[in-house]
Amino acid sequence: GIEWGIPDKKKRTFYFGKADIPFSEKDSDFSKAAEIGYSKAMLDLQGSFIRDAFGKHAGETINSYENDDSTNKREFEDLPRGGAIEQIFDRVTQLAGAKLDAELRKLGVQVEGLTEERKKTLYAEKFTQDIMKKAFGSMSGLVPVQTYIAKAPVGDGYEIGVVAVMSKKTRDIARDMRLKRPSLITGKGKAIKDFLPTDKKGFLQEYGLRLVYDETGAPVLLSYGRWGVSLQDMKGRFANRKMQIAQNTALNKADQAIQEFINVNLSFSDDVKTGQV
Fold first, then answer.
1. How many CB atoms lie within 10 A of CB 182?
2. If residue 223 lies in a helix (H) or strand (E), which one and from where to where?
3. How many Cα atoms sit within 13 Å of 27 on the Cβ side?
4. Rounded to 5 degrees, what are φ and ψ at 154?
5. Which helix (H) or strand (E) holds 13?
6. Of residues 233 and 176, more confidently modeled
7. Who has greater pLDDT, 135 or 180?
8. Each residue's pLDDT tens digit, 262-273
9. Best CA proximity match to 84, nearest among 62, 102, 64
10. d(Cα 186, Cα 230) in Å, to the nearest integer?
11. Which of 41, 198, 212, 253 could, after both became Cys, cross-link 19 (CB 3.0–4.6 A)?
12. What average pLDDT is seen over the chain?
């Protein structure tokens, strides 16, 4: 009953991502492949969120610019969720003259001596970068709620899927954790050990992050990191060392998931491809 990317009655928005695991469970490298698959599934999920957030912030920004212009008002239809980049550029390049100069200056661009076409190009680039920053900034508080592994429809491999949720509550909790302050948001919870699997086999079904509440009602992050050691590596004098490396890798992955929830790191990548915006 979930509508992906659309807020429900409780103002929660759900997203999902999935990835392949090109191994069978009988393979000694399955644990590594499953962890890598989880990371890819999260990246797929985060990509869906960013596309939605980009379109939302772009629509809001364009509308605010247009509402400020009393001499040239235009009505814009709602931007479709995701995949709206070309439409956004079309809108941006319609803004011209003194209005465009003012907006360029807001973005820190010196407009004196620029041709009109160059102004529009610069504005489109700055606009996109600014909106992308907002979209990335909005991702703090995106928390996985369920992970599942299923047999692939064809072949011997598997698929891993992740479902995550974003709401004002999860964003506020992430902000409180980032600022290292007690959260005003509380919930009915239980002792941490009661959230954990009861046996080793149960732990093998857990991936990634969980947001729960402890016995005092305070929000708590549980992070499951995992890695593996192949059967070949368990032989010989370096077996113990390789076991330690695997444990440290798992710990680092668990820590990384917490950091991503609290404060997403921002980076830009410019990739020029002919025929694409």
1. 9
2. strand 219-224
3. 13
4. -130, 140
5. strand 13-21
6. 176
7. 180
8. 876 555 455 555
9. 62
10. 42
11. 41
12. 81
**What are the b/e assignments for 148-161, b being 16+ CB within 10 Å?**
ebeeeeeeebbbbb
Interval 12-70: pLDDT, tens: 999 999 999 988 878 878 888 888 999 899 989 988 888 888 888 887 877 776 665 54
CA dist 118 to 88, 100, 104, 230, 276, Å? 17, 11, 11, 57, 19
Tokens of 58: 């772009």
- Strands 158-166 and 143-151 turn out to be antiparallel
Query: 101 - beta bridge partners?
Result: none
**Nearest CA-CA partner of 121 in 100, 148, 152:** 100
- CA distances (Å), 150 to each of 18, 35, 77, in order? 11, 14, 40
Whether the model clears a pTM of 0.85, i.e. scores above it, the answer is no
What is the percent of the chain where pLDDT is above 70?
83
Evaluate the CA torsion angle 229, 230, 234, 237 in order and state its sign.
Answer: negative
Whole-number pLDDT of residue 74: 43
User: d(Cα 239, Cα 204) in Å, to the nearest integer?
Assistant: 21
Cα separation, 81 vs 275, whole angstroms: 22
Strand order of the β-sheet with 13-21 is 13-21, 158-166, 143-151
